Amino acid sequence: MSAAHTFLTTDPALFNPETGRLDAVRLARELNVPVGMIAGAIGRKAPGVRKHPDSSSLQCELRRLCRIWVALVGFYAGDKSNARIFLNAPNRNLESHAPIEFIENGNLAPLESFIDAMSARQSA
Fold this sequence. Notes:
Elements: H1 3-9, H2 24-31, H3 35-41, H4 46-51, H5 59-75, H6 80-88, H7 99-104, H8 109-123
Helix pairs in contact: 2-3, 5-6, 5-8
């Protein structure tokens, strides 16, 4: 994926406008989940993430969640409501688990693989 394509599909609502960094609180709001779930998904404690939601030390793991979210919204032509439904619905391609379960458990790799597979099918 080209840098230009990535830039065009990134949702500015996920970033702190002052620092330009991903913000865990904003990401939680977009996914409609508690900040504590985002913290757990990235292997951090919730109080620290709430206190410094756009800390540079969080950026690598927040990028993984951002990539998943932005891809899902893109698959639904920008419809965030349908993307949220997808996150919460059991999926036969994920052994009947809802994608949100992987986020809750901090196991993002299966979702990243799933997103990659969906992207490959869409661009073919």
